[in-house]
Amino acid sequence: MGKDVIVACDFSTAEQTYAFLDRFTDRKPFVKIGMELFYAEGPDIVRNIKKRGHKIFLDLKLHDIPNTVKKAMTVLSRLDVDITNLHAAGGIDMMRYAIEGLTRPDGTRPLLIAVTQLTSIDQRRMEGELLIKEPLAEVVMQYAENAKNAGLDGVVCSALEAGKVHGRCGDSFLTVTPGVRFSEGAVGDQQRVTTPEKAKEIGSDYIVVGRPITSAEDPVAAYMRCVQDFIDE
Ligand code: C5P
């Protein structure tokens, strides 16, 4: 898989999601399904979107003891998604077990990436609530290295960190980056944002774009703009 734009389908029902995806007739976007839609609609939402011909990033961010995560990953491996994820904070053993669970009997598996620190956690919260005293950027790099050492394929991080992650973990270690906005668009609740062009320049492998596409007057045009700016020369 190469560079791509992943559309965050943060809808609460299958109907809304299918109505949105029906607009895309030429190029079928890579779709991110998160907790809200998955918990509302169950595994069928994944099967149905897959049947429609989309690649899927199943964003459930698993975090539990290694054995429980392994068993949950085995269940997810049967859904035939392209990417799924977990929290690096669960530790290296948990990540190793996750890969074991995700690997199918024929040796294939979806790509597995780790969330480093959530973008809702800042230095103050990390120190005051979690009692982690290191600089946030260093914690992100350490978690990325842990994920690489456990055999994972990459991390979710800010596009602004993508270059540094590649520097530490190698160019083939994937960086999947949310927090993307058009230069003239609303930032909303995202703290550190980049444009698709800037994410490309820094070296993100996949950008995850939600509201700039889902809330656009013309979502297909907004998606194609991301594709042109991020992928096309
Ligand atoms: O609408 P917006 O473009 O902000 O959507 C970004 C998507 O990426 C959302 O689904 C959000 O949950 C997800 N995400 C994020 N920051 C992270 C991890 C995931 O924004 N650190």
How does this structure look, described?
This protein is α/β, with parallel strands linked by helices. The chain contains eleven helices and eight strands. An eight-stranded parallel beta barrel has the order 1-2-3-4-5-6-7-8, surrounded by seven helices. Helix 4 runs parallel beside helix 5, helix 7 packs across helix 8 and helix 9 runs parallel beside helix 11 (219-230).
Jot down its keywords.
eight-stranded parallel barrel, 8 strands, alpha/beta
Tell me the layout of helices and strands.
Elements: E1 4-8, H1 14-21, E2 30-34, H2 35-41, H3 44-51, E3 56-62, H4 66-77, E4 83-87, H5 92-102, E5 111-115, H6 123-128, H7 136-149, E6 154-156, H8 159-169, E7 174-177, H9 196-202, E8 206-209, H10 211-214, H11 219-230
Parallel strand pairs: 1-2, 1-8, 2-3, 3-4, 4-5, 5-6, 6-7, 7-8
Helix pairs in contact: 4-5, 7-8, 9-11
The structure holds cytidine-5'-monophosphate.
The SSE string, one letter per element, is EHEHHEHEHEHHEHEHEHH
Ends apart, CA distance between termini: 18 Å
The hetero compounds bound to this protein are: cytidine-5'-monophosphate
Calculate Rg over CA atoms.
17 Å
Structural class determined from secondary elements: alpha/beta
Major sheet characteristics: 8 strands, parallel, barrel
Order of strands side by side in the largest beta sheet?
1-2-3-4-5-6-7-8
Residue share in helices? 40-55%
What's the average pLDDT?
Answer: 95
Count of helix runs: 11
Catalogue the unreliable spans: none
Please indicate the percent range of residues in DSSP E strands (runs of 2 or more): 15-25%
Quaternary state of this entry equals: single chain
Secondary structure: number of strands: 8
> Per the principal axes of the C-alpha atoms, what is the gross shape?
globular
